[in-house]
Amino acid sequence: MKPLICFDMDETLIYSDKTHIKAFNRAFSKNGLKKIPEKKLESALTGETTDIIIKKFYPNINKNLLKKIIKERRDIVVKETSKYARAIPGAINALKKLKKLYRIAIISNCIHKEILALLKGAGINHKLFDKIIGKDEVRHAKPYPDEIFKAEKLFHEKAFCLVGDSLWDIKAARMAKVRIITVLTGNTKKEKLIKARPDYIINSIEYLPKLLQKIGDKN
Question: What is the pLDDT of residues 151-169, one digit of tens each?
Fold first, then answer.
């Protein structure tokens, strides 16, 4: 039986900052809120869920307005801004190599529809993945381990590892008692990631097949 690898998506497999920044600001504008400077928004895209990101900039936002903006931002991603997503260099080749030896799943704090739209925008065939699990398919999003547990349940086995770019990925993996491989293609500073002590750190997904081969050789 092939071992299971769980992948985060945003800034792990694809560059999606532009997609999300444009969607947030379009949703804010539609609802009479001031646009946030792109650099500020980019620094907030560190794996957290949409509601937390919005509250960083609008801490006193009305609950109903928050729900409305969350839905509109999601719809804008799916229908309009997913075209800005780009595959991280080497990601597609790495996935194709890994698929021969592992079963691979995406676990993301985007909803399922968003994941499919973003993969399409980035030119990554969703059929490369054995399962795709969005936050709308579990009770709690990362940093809770629900998405990992869901993948393990679907595959009837313990995950070999989680590959992600954020502190939230590290926390989720720890709670699920799964090894964590961190990539440096996200917006979280390297020093913070090192301090969180993932099992392994690599520059990008491109180097994952070689690392997994080394881990396999050690075992």
Answer: 999 999 999 999 999 999 9
